[in-house]
Design the sequence.
């Protein structure tokens, strides 16, 4: 072994492509079975966490958490996909990736998915479950043979790095919602989940099982999931459909710099798309393969990014978005009136409508002409994202139909059956459909030091008789 320590290379260059020293390479305490077993356990946990993030999006009222769950679901989906690819390189089908690797792990993830309290969920996922996944990845990258199993070492490093960043943000959110009154309960909950994971021999099964899992805290609760979206108190007058931004945007009489305000509004309002997509993914959980969930989760995250682009756009104009009614009835009506296939059809129909020159290209041209570089930047990437989303729809939605036309017609017909409930919401006292545009436009003009244009100020078209694609209801 002393000779191995002095293993010669040309001009003392690092051996073995820099993967490890020769002393480490000649050890053989590893196997392909061990690699696959650990990866499949990590895969199971991250896939369940992904599903739980998705399920919480519609019913989570807090805007920052909706977008957080959207982002972290996507990151988990990327890790799940990398594991599936690696296991597929080491094993012939069937790979067994959809099997539960350990009943105690299943119980742990059931507890997390059924947890009804937001602060408890944040504590459980970001201080217990994901940190234990990170620890499992760290152990795997150290234990795996650095030469024979180099691909596994690589993805373990990448997973540990990305999950650590995810965890840091999540733990900060957990701290923000922790209080002196809830501290003891949250600590007990944290210990409860740790005992469950310990009873499984940790996420990767590397520890001997010395304890039995404690009785479940939420044995009779369903997974925390609801179709009807919720919004926090900052979303004032969310039923308000008194302004049709598309009608303003496509009217040639208005200036591009004023249209940009409507573009920022449209972007922020895209928060309702993740709320719809989350219900599609959960309702079709076992009816579609993982690749469907992966690509749709990417799209869901993109839509959440677009909403945040609108938020940033308003911030750049020194506009408080909470003073503007951000309507959520599109997601509410689709989620409560249509089945998941119909919702997917509406989503695809809208995406395809954004591809012609009157769609995303037009919005980018408006943003470019407006003189607002941030709007131009955001619309450039928004356009690129929507091209990807149209492709995702053609891969996963269109093949269910005989032709693209039939697929489009189904989406159009599904959307046409959605009741806007414009008058009902007004009759129930939920909104007056107040025209908020004059106030916003006047405020921006004051900041710009210019007089409002009377024609722009007088804009007063609603969603009462038209959809967002300007088709008559």
Sequence:
């Amino acid at each position: 072994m002393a000779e191995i320590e002095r293993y010669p290379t040309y001009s003392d260059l690092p051996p073995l492509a820099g993967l490890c020293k020769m002393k480490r390479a000649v050890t053989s305490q590893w196997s392909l079975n061990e690699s696959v077993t650990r990866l499949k356990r990590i895969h199971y946990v991250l896939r369940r966490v992904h599903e739980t993030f998705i399920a919480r999006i519609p019913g989570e009222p807090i805007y920052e958490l909706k977008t957080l769950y959207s982002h972290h679901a996507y990151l988990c989906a990327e890790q799940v996909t990398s594991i599936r690819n690696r296991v597929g390189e080491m094993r012939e089908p069937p790979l067994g990736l959809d099997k539960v690797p350990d009943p105690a792990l299943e119980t742990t993830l059931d507890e997390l998915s059924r947890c009804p309290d937001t602060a408890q969920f944040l504590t459980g996922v970001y201080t217990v479950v994901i940190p234990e996944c990170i620890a499992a990845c760290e152990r795997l990258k150290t234990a795996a043979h650095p030469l024979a199993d180099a691909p596994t070492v690589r993805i373990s490093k990448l997973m540990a790095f990305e999950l650590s960043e995810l965890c840091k943000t999540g733990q900060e959110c957990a701290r923000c919602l922790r209080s002196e009154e809830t501290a003891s309960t949250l600590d007990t909950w944290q210990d409860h989940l740790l005992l469950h994971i310990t009873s499984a021999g940790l996420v990767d099964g590397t520890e001997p099982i010395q304890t039995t899992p404690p009785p479940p805290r939420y044995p009779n609760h369903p997974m925390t999931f609801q179709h009807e979206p919720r919004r926090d108190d900052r979303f004032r007058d969310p039923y308000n459909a008194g302004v049709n931004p598309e009608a303003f945007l496509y009217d040639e009489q208005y200036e591009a710099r004023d249209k940009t305000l409507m573009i920022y509004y449209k972007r922020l309002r895209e928060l309702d798309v993740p709320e719809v997509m989350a219900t599609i993914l959960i309702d079709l959980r076992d009816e579609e393969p993982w690749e469907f969930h992966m690509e749709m989760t990417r799209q869901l995250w993109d839509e959440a990014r677009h909403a945040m682009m609108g938020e940033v756009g308003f911030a750049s104009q020194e506009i408080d978005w909470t003073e503007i009614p951000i309507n959520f009835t599109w997601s509410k009506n689709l989620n409560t009136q249509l089945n998941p296939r119909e919702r997917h059809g509406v989503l695809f129909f809208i995406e395809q409508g954004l591809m012609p020159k009157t769609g995303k290209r037009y919005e980018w041209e408006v943003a470019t002409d407006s003189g607002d570089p941030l709007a131009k930047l955001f619309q450039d990437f928004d356009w690129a994202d929507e091209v990807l989303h149209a492709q995702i729809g053609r891969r996963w939605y269109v093949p269910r139909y005989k032709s693209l036309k039939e697929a489009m017609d189904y989406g159009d017909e599904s959307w046409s059956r959605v009741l806007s409930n414009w008058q009902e919401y007004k009759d129930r006292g939920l909104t007056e459909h107040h025209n908020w545009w004059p106030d916003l436009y006047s405020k921006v003009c004051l900041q710009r030091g210019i007089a409002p244009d009377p024609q722009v100020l007088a804009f007063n078209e609603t969603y009462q008789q038209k959809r967002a694609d300007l088709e008559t209801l």
